[in-house]
Design goal:
The protein contains eight helices and 16 strands. With about 290 residues, it is of the alpha+beta class. It folds into two domains: about 90 residues, T-fold (Orthogonal Bundle), CATH 1.10.3980.10; about 120 residues, T-fold (Roll).
Length: about 290
């Protein structure tokens, strides 16, 4: 999934800890094989190849995951949309050099984007696109889902104290480490100096943290900076935000909601965030603004 997964695990028996960690990492590999759009044989790639021609039958797991994505789309007013694949390709964020496309190119890609064009048949458990050229992209949710699955496996193995990380993108703190009852301390890095400074810290106790930052895959063209965080409603990368970090009980939720919050901004997030979800905003502008939602 284009990132590094790690687990910090507390326990009394090293062999049991190693076995649990190995099982967890095997699950990450299984999900990579299932969801990767870089693998032609993955289920996700097969959907993209065939769903415009006919309904594609999928496993209960994949059907639930896509169904959840559609709920995120509806609740975020389209700011989260897994059908954003054609736009990511047009802007060079998939297997290509970043580039500033022409308006006609953006319009052509945007015409193939829209979660309302993705049809699910619950009875037959199939996925169908209602137009050619559509593609679903798991980049906005896959890492969070994998982190949740790793945490579930560690719990099944009898562990209740662990830190699961998909790089710094999605993190889950299970329980609290020895000596720190508040949970696992995680720094939220400075969006312009991520290797040198942090802007705040958060303690994760049975809680996740996900971060979307405009600098991660940004490029400059025509005197402007364009990030990989795409507004699927306009066809252009979101502007005005440097970074958003979201906490939630599940990493799948925290990762998914970073995108609408990044795109829609602090005021929209304050009015529309789901229960038990909070966000830390690093806003761009003449006076950079930092802070949690109140």
């Amino acid at each position: 999934m284009g990132t590094t997964y790690s687990v910090a695990l507390y326990g009394d028996h090293r062999d049991k800890m190693a076995e649990a960690a190995n099982t967890a990492f095997a699950e990450v590999q299984r999900l990579n094989d299932l969801l990767s759009i870089y693998r032609p044989a993955s289920v996700w790639s097969q959907i993209n190849r065939l769903a415009a021609q006919r309904p594609v039958a999928v496993s209960p797991e994949v059907f639930r995951l896509i169904s959840r994505c559609l709920r995120y789309s509806r609740r975020s007013q389209g700011a989260f949309d897994i059908t954003v694949g054609p736009l990511m390709k047009t802007w060079g964020f998939f297997k290509g050099a970043r580039r500033l496309p022409g308006r006609d190119e953006v319009a052509a890609a945007l015409a193939k984007v829209g979660y309302r064009h993705l049809g699910l048949d619950q009875a037959r458990r199939t996925v169908r696109f209602d137009m050619e050229g559509m593609e679903i992209n798991p980049g906005g949710i896959g890492k969070g889902y994998a982190v949740d699955r790793v945490a579930a496996i560690l719990r099944q193995k009898g562990f209740d104290t662990a830190l699961v990380m998909a790089s710094s993108s999605s993190i889950y703190g299970m329980g609290a480490p020895p000596g720190e009852a508040r949970g696992w301390k995680v720094d939220i890095r400075h969006p312009k100096q991520p290797r040198r400074h942090s802007v705040t810290e958060v303690f994760l106790k049975d809680m996740s943290l996900s971060t979307s930052a405009g600098y991660a895959q940004a490029f400059r063209a025509g005197g402007r900076v364009f990030s990989h965080i795409m507004d699927p409603r306009t066809g252009y990368p979101a502007q005005g935000m440097l970074q958003v970090s979201v906490t939630a009980p599940r990493a799948m939720d925290s990762e998914a909601w970073t995108k609408p919050f990044f795109i829609q901004g602090r005021s929209w997030a304050a009015q529309n965030r789901p229960r038990r979800i909070n966000a830390f905003f690093c806003e761009d502008g003449p006076e950079q603004t930092w802070g949690w939602l109140s």
